[in-house]
Amino acid sequence: MSEAVIVQNLIKKYPSLKKPPGFKQWIVSLPKMLSQKSEQPYFTALNNVSFTVKKGECLGIIGKNGAGKSTMLSLLLGTSFPSAGSVAVNGKRTPLLELGAGFHPELTGKENIILNGVLLGLTRGEVEARLDSIVAFSEIERFIEMPVRTYSSGMYLRLAFSVAIHTDPEVLLIDEILAVGDESYQKKSEQALVSLIKRGVTTVFVSHNMEAVKKICNRVITLKNGQIEFEGEPDVAIQNYMHVLGS
Amino acid sequence: MYKLSHAWERKIDLIYLLTLKEVALKYKRTFLGIFWSLLNPLLMTLVYFIAFKVFMRFKVDNYTFFLLSALFPWTWFSSSLIISARSLVDNVSLIKKVVFPRSYLVAAVINAQLVNLIFSIPILLFLAFFYTGGPAWCWVIGIPLLIAIQFLFTLGITLIVSISNTYFRDIEYLVGVFMNLIFWMTPIIYPMSSVPEKYRPLFFLNPLTSLMSAWRELFLHNTLQWKESGIALGMALLTWGIGVAVFRKLERRLDEVL
Fold this sequence. Notes:
heterodimer, A: alpha/beta, Rossmann fold, 8 helices, 26% strand, B: mainly alpha, 11 helices
């Protein structure tokens, strides 16, 4: 099996009501709802999307804001489910979406490392065994026993990133997070990611940073209004995309 | 020695850590920390003792012991329910960005509240020595058994409540009102014998009636009521089954409603 990700005819709709109907409105519209079956308005975030990612490949997804990139990642991750069609992912999925989503500000750095590591698929023993290298990579040894609410945002991101890359990812789902910390740390985190990808980790990479996409992706999909507009070589995809943006 | 599979070991670790987080966060930035879990029931006991020994005298023997033997387990149930109603709503970022069984968040709340019950058992132990001449060996079997039954029952209810609350935030307000209603409709502060004969069958439709009665008999009379425990277990299994089914069904649209 060489396909790590298979997406077929994927459709994702969200109820497009800005505000769910309150009790008052519900009473008012109840007679109408009973007499005729009302169609709930939907917003289609992804419309009939199909693609595959081979094992060890790095797929870039680019597109304007609201094109459906992040929705795609959440479907791949499994935090949301398709309205129609199918998503299949082989291997352990590791999200690098919103770094530190599982962190709690009142817990210490170390407590957060352990909780997050287990959330990302390790056992407690495994996280404890890797604790030293996680802390070392994040470069916050001095503050590791302090609650993360006292951390700067850079420290917070570095710690979260360090945990994520130490959890044996098989399929990495990345959403615009290469800008971690200061410049020297950015370089370090980028290198760590590239070496993971080189080691055969399958990656889906969502970004607006075209340089990064060009550097690490083998193939690029351009999304527009929830549909695949282009699929192919990174250079060509980026050129087309920039051209559309410019015009 | 039997070695757990990696997946199971991780599941247990995850529930343990989420529980630890609940407990730790509850007492973060307090001076007394976990001692509050002991101090709380202790102070509660003192208050009830004064209230019912001095001001309101009921014609029930050892009323304070009578009351606490059911009130402590009830508190586990009610605080679990009230807190877990928000457990999904309050963990949006975790639910949207990390994949793990969402029901663990609910289970962790119940576990964390269980810590309080366990801390209040020494108080019951003390009262038992004082009033009935000491606990019997059936406590050793009875307490874990009733904890297991109540855990299943509470989990079933809280799964339904927490997932419904993500669709309609009204649920958490309803829970507060209903808890009050159920409290008065369960023999906790009064004995079953004070309920008029014709209403008693109605009371046994309430799963908590047999459960609380089993708790009370265990502590107060050192007897393990197999019949009541059996009824409670049956109802708990049913509730748990329904809870899991409802949760599974509604969980799939969680990302759309949060």
